[in-house]
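Materials and Methods. Structural model of Dolichyldiphosphatase. The 230-residue sequence of Dolichyldiphosphatase from Amniculicola lignicola CBS 123094 was retrieved and submitted for structure prediction as follows.
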Amino acid sequence: MEGPPVASFSLTHVHYNPADPISYLCAWAALVPQGLCVVYATLIWSNREIEILLMFAGQMGCEAVNWVLKRYIKEERPREMHGKGYGMPSSHAQFVTFFSLTLTLFLLFRHVPHPTETHTPFSFIQRLALSVVALAAAAAVACSRIYLNYHTPKQVLVGCLAGALFAVAWFLFTTYLRKAGWVDWALDTYLARLFRFRDLVVQEDLVDSGWARWEERRLRSLTVQGKKRS
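The predicted structure was written out as tokens:
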């Protein structure tokens, strides 16, 4: 008696050539979008920053646009690839392009960190260097889709273009939300206060979050211990 048909969960199932080291690295690169979603969820839960939540909302909107474009264009994947689904535009390329370009726009145009007594934030040059690394990593992920024969060069280029256009549009939209006071309004709502969302990362580095309070508490504790010993 034959068993039921078996399907592959394509979200994490990646075809690659085990004899090719580059192909192996490309297979790992295919997992970058899933890894970034975990990073999003972790940062949102741990830091409750509205800027990260807005970025994640834009990321999901970009994915929705990709879903619509694929079903509208209906272009097949390369013949060498036996995977399911349409290939135009590449969702991986669109995902990482949106992420890296949105991060770049934030670091260079919105993030204005102030130094504190315990922390010196990244300079503009350092933030620029970090942006270049993010864009280069996105380019590597996009190229890996061509190397693994999941997409044609045209499908990857269109994915990068769609991700870039959506990133710029989303950044302009969120800039309007900030200037018009909608972000401040949202942060004053019951739900935002219930989940303790805040808007500090625009002017503070994430690494400095809570550090000043910790240093103050630590020094106070050392002072108390010193008085007890004396």
